[in-house]
Structure formats: C-alpha cells, structure tokens
Amino acid sequence: MNDLGTTNRLLLFIVVPLIFYLLKELSFIFVPLFFSMFIALLFLPLMRWFKKKKVPNALSVTAVIAIIATTFYLGGRLIRISTSELRSADNSFVALAESKLLGLVVSLESFMGIERIAGVQVIDHYLKEFNVFENMGPTVGMVGDTLTMTLMTVFFMILLLAGSINLQDVLQTVIFRQKYASVKVFRRIEKDIIKFIRVKFVISFFTGVGFTLACVFFDVSFPVFWGLFAFLINFVQMVGSIVSVILLSLFAMVELDPSGTLLAFVLVIIGVQVIMGSILEPNFLGKTFSINVITVLVMLMLWGYIWGVPGLIMAIPITVFIKIVLEQFPRTRVIARLMSGTMVGPVQTR
Predict the structure, then answer these.
(1) Which of 158, 217, 223, 226 has the maximum number of C-beta atoms within 10 A of its C-beta?
(2) 252-270, pLDDT tens digit by residue?
(3) CA atoms of 134 and 249, how far apart (whole Å)
(4) How many CB atoms lie within 10 A of CB 151?
(5) How many helical (H) and strand (E) elements, i.e. helices and strands, does the chain have?
(6) Which residues contact 214 (CB under 8 A, 6 or more apart)?
(7) For the chain, percent helix, then strand, then coil, each to nearest 5?
(8) 71-91, pLDDT tens digit by residue?
(9) Could you tell me if 36 and 153 are in contact, meaning their C-beta atoms sit under 8 angstroms apart?
C-alpha cells in the first residue's frame, strides 16, 4: 500500500505539469471553452426558468443570445463615444501632452543615469527601431486570433446553453461518482461564480462611473474613455485597479498643475478604488467567498503566464472553482483552507 501511495504521488507530480502544458499549448481551444462556461453559468438559472415555463429550447437559446448581443451592442456604442472623445483632441492638447510627457521621460533618464546622444530627440531615440509595417503582421495575427476565439466562444456557449454539453454531467464523470454530490457541488459553483461575476460587474461599473465623475469635476479630458477603461481593467483582480490609478494619474499631470489640485484628484480616484474594491466588494461577496492575497497573486501569475490577458480575467473564477472542489475531499480540504486563509476550525461547506 505504501508503494502504491508513492506511485500515485509520483504520477501526480508528472500529470499536473502535463495538464498545465496542454492548457497552454491548446489555449485556442481552452480559452473560448472556459469563457463560454462562465457566460453560460450566468444564464443557466434563466434557462431553467424557461424550461419550467415550457418554453421551447431553441427559443430560450435565441432569447439568451439576443440579450448577450444587445449587451455587446450597447458596449460597442459606449466604446464609439469614448473613441470619438480621443479623436476630438485638438493640436494644442497634443502638444501640451507631448511636452509634459517628454519632460517626465527626461527626468526619469537623469534619475536612472540613462544617456542619449546629444541632439537626438526622445521619441527618435526610443522608437528608432519601431517600424509600423514590420509590426503590422503581429497586429493582424492578433486580430485574427481574437476573432477566431470569439467565434469559438459563441459556438461553445450555444452548445452549453442548448444542453449539448452538460457541465453537471462532466463534473460527475470526471471528479465525482455520486450524482447527489455532483449536483450539490455544481449548484454551489454556479451560485458562487454567478455571485462573483455580478458583484464584479456592479463594482467595476460604479468604479468607472466614479472615475468619469472625477474627471468631469476636475476638468480632466476624456472622462468617458477613462471611465470605460477603469470598468474594463477592473475585471483583472488587484492589478487592474493599480494600473487604472497610475495611468490616469500620469495623464492628469498633463492638464492639472502639480499642486494641491493634482494631489486631490489622485486621492479621489484612489478613494474610489479603495471604497469599491476594498470595502464594498468584500462585504458583498461575504466571508465564505474569501481568498487570501497570496493565492490571488499566485493564480494571477499562473493563469496570466498560461493564457495571457484572458487568463488574468478568468483567474479568480477558476480559483473559486478549484477551491470549492478541494473542499469536498478530506485530503485536499487543508489546501482549500490555505487558499482562503482560514486554518482555524472546520471548513464551512454549503
């Protein structure tokens, strides 16, 4: 029995890296599949309601697709408004932005001891090897990959909503053997992930609104763009809030005097992030949903390395799924407690 246990552990050390390697190499399949799973989870309660009302399955799927399409259409309109703001920037603003940003670059150069050839402009020095036509190929390839993944996400989502792929049956076959256990765990996963996505959406929305209002109040240009940017990047846990504050603060330096006004603006946007992300979001999610900071950082680095930006977005929902599954087995329950940072007392399962 000891030899068998040792063999199983060795196999585990071999299989786990192999799984992550396959997830990375086959990202063009797994990224759309995971995205479609999380989107489908949001609408599974609505699909069950349609089924209860004896609505035909084809009509139910069509209604859900119409809701998603309408959401993306409204989002596209908002993006168009924000881009129109950027296009409306006059030459004086562009010149002011260039002078202040170049001054910041020169200050950083002197601080870090970077030397440039006398008479060479900053832009020419740092972009001397940049060629638009040489970089056109990777850009076109990225657009093509994004379009392909979007179409595959839609395809997988339709299969999941139509019931052609049953997540509960997959969970029962791969992880659990008893139907009751798989149903119970699947409903908990569905409930927690839906709760996380809804709370994250609402928090990100009001964060974007807060950034927009702060830009309007302090007369910072492009308020809709910065609000939309804060909303989108806030879905990347922890990292997104830091990036949005830093970028908007740097941009505000162009228009606001480096005095109390700039400091007040920076404090306001930091306050918006703290109130939304550090106070309201944890309270809405509750203690049973808590994941410690170390786990969040490790998962962000892991899934960011495997899948890039999509991995950063999906890192926390995947972590929630793993944590719930680990809580169901006595041998892995301690790992779930480590992930949540609660090593005292029994694990609370629902």
Answers:
(1) 226
(2) 887 777 777 888 999 999 9
(3) 32
(4) 11
(5) 15, 0
(6) 220, 265, 268, 269, 272
(7) 80, 0, 20
(8) 888 888 888 888 887 777 666
(9) yes
